[in-house]
Amino acid sequence: MELLTGEYRNTLDEKGRILFPSKLRNELFTETEKSILIVTQSFDRCLWLYTLDEWKNLSSKIMETASPFSRQNRLVLRTLIAPAQEVELDKSGRLSIPQSLREYANLTKECVILGINRYMELWDTQTYAEYLNENDENLKDAAEDLRSISL
Predict the structure, then answer these.
(1) What is the CA radius of gyration of the chain?
(2) Under DSSP, is residue 91 helix (H, G, I), strand (E, B) or coil?
(3) 54-81 pLDDT, tens per residue?
(4) φ and ψ at 51, to 5 degrees?
(5) I need a labelling partner for 35 at 20 to 30 A (CA). Which of 21, 48, 56, 108 fits?
(6) Are 88 and 36 in contact (CB under 8 A)?
(7) At a CB cut-off of 8 Å and minimum separation 6, what does 43 contact?
């Protein structure tokens, strides 16, 4: 799989479908395989989108280390694993976002899809703008913490 990067803007239709960017479709799926993604909640009021292989890898690692006897582990399992749903792109390349996940991420009409290496995020455009604005100082601090990376 190629690295997934880019910021794409599309509109959610009245049935909760969004046109999935063709660049990402072409990088993720061959013509012979089903175009299936796992969609789940993330921690910032957006949705995470994974290919089946990436999701199996991530979810199995989480399940191997998480204990149902740990309050914090249960919170992660309930937030990330439990709401995950398998969604297949339709013939027109649209992804139908389940109602519960649309509500969680406050998806209304205008949306942003971000390619972040091995997964993608789906945001409501306004929520994403607010998130970036609220975290401007945190970004500077986070970037400073990466100062040991040499190019």
Answers:
(1) 16
(2) coil
(3) 999 999 999 999 999 999 999 999 999 9
(4) -70, 165
(5) 108
(6) yes
(7) 79
The pLDDT tens digits for 20-64 are 988 888 888 776 667 899 999 998 999 999 999 999 999 999 999
**What is the identity of the amino acid at 89?**
L
In this structure, are residues 36 and 84 in contact, taking their beta carbons and an 8 Å threshold? no
Distances (CA, A) of 2 to 6, 27, 115, 130: 12, 6, 11, 30
Query: Which tokens sit at 103?
Result: 């509500």
**Structural tokens at position 19:** 């046109």
Angstrom distance (rounded) from CA 142 to CA 16? 34
Distance CA 62, CA 48 (A): 15
